Amino acid sequence: RKWNSFDESSSFADESTRKARKVADHYSARSNQTLEEREASPIIHLKKLNNWIKSVLIQRYARRGDAVLDLACGKGGDLIKWDKAQIGYYVGVDIAIGSIKDCRTRYNGDADQQQRRKKFSFPARLICADCYETHLDEYLSDDAPFDICSCQFALHYSWSTEARARRALANISALLRPGGYFIGTMPDANVIIKKLRDAEGLTFGNSVYWISFDEEYAHKKFSSSSPYGIQYKFHLEDAVDCPEWIVPFHLFKSLAEEYDLKLVSVKNSHAFVDEFLKMPEFTELMRRLGALGDGNQDRSTLSQDEWDVAYLYLTFVLQKGGESTTR
Ligand code: SAM
Fold first, then answer.
1. What is the residue with the minimal CA distance to atom 23 of ligand 1?
2. From the CA of 73, how far away is ligand 1's center (Å)?
3. Residue 322: left (phi > 0), alpha (psi -120 to 50), or beta?
4. In angstroms, what is the span from residue 280 Cα to ligand 1's centroid?
5. What atom in ligand 1 is closest to the CA of residue 157?
6. Which of 2, 116, 142, 257 has CA atoms 20 to 30 A from the CA of 233?
7. How far is CA 279 from the centre of its chain?
8. Rounded Cα–Cα distance for residues 177 and 138 (Å)
9. What CATH number does the domain located at 8-187+248-320 have?
């Protein structure tokens, strides 16, 4: 299958797409870390915890042979997780051309890697596009239907305008088969807004992150105006430094219903860890990843500040209507 890149000049016309470009530039500029650099990261255990959360979601919902659509796939950090789930086909889409290139390298394996590990067992197509503007439903119609759509740590980039939030859901709904699942992780707006209310000013955080609202956006949140475009700046050491948007979950849930996507579950990451860390197969996975010490609720290797960042996120599962299969 051929590689696609999109025409940047025509894709970034108005204010919202200009902001999307800013996000894309940020992620494109982030270079691949060596193993040593990664292990030295101040948020290494948070990264491992997030990998565990994504692995649990994937293991619970993916089935052998599934066709998977990974929206905002980044550098392909989840490819191995999908491989373990023995999926049959993978399409990854990301707005950042640098990330798509890294993802391609990871998928193909560089010269060294090719000798060390076997290739991924599923065919893949990787595309550079704005998932919240492009009509992926038309563009990927030959690849559809998908059994699973995944959007990890990225759906909040669609809430800059109502049109983009709707485009995201229209794409997902059109490309999923009846009964297919939409799984993901994104910031927990309830937690962020509570922290903003408790903060003395418009900024709060700890040693590894800070969130800062402009006067204009903080005011917007507290008034009853549009729920879209509530912007804040998010900085996470060694990871993120760009504008993001609040996604009020109850509104996301109702909007998704308009696209025949019904909520199956939503959990803050803390509750998610509490629930799934008890299960032996996931305890073992946590032990292997090394995010939480022994994996028996002991957070000795994860700092309190990293654990506080985990609290800023939630996981969600939605199901496309039309068939009552359960997983
Ligand atoms: N999903 C990957 C993961 O979990 O490792 C990457 C997560 S990273 C925090 C956020 C990703 O969202 C970045 O790769 C970024 O380029 C991508 N992204 C942001 N806005 C996007 C958009 N409008 N369309 C497609 N990808 C987008």
1. 130
2. 6
3. left
4. 31
5. 20
6. 257
7. 24
8. 15
9. 3.40.50.150
pTM for the whole structure: 0.91
Q: Which atom of ligand 1 is nearest to the CA of 28?
A: 16
CA of 153 to the centre of ligand 1 (A): 7
Distance between CA atoms of residues 53 and 208, nearest Å: 20
Q: Does 130 appear as a known binding residue?
A: yes
Segments making up each domain of the chain, as ranges: 8-187+248-320
In degrees and rounded to multiples of 5, residue 273 shows phi and psi of: -60, -45
Sign, CA dihedral 92-184-253-22, equals negative
Residues 6+ apart with CB under 8 A from 42: 207, 208, 237, 238
Confidence at residue 12, expressed as pLDDT on a 0 to 100 scale = 46
Report which protein residue has its CA nearest ligand 1's atom 6.
74
Torsion angle, CA of 38/184/249/47, rounded to 10 degrees? -10
86-105 confidence digits (pLDDT tens): 999 999 999 999 999 999 99
Q: Which atom of ligand 1 is nearest to the CA of 72?
A: 26
Ligand 1 pocket mutation, candidates 51, 95, 127, criterion most atoms within 8 A of CB: 95
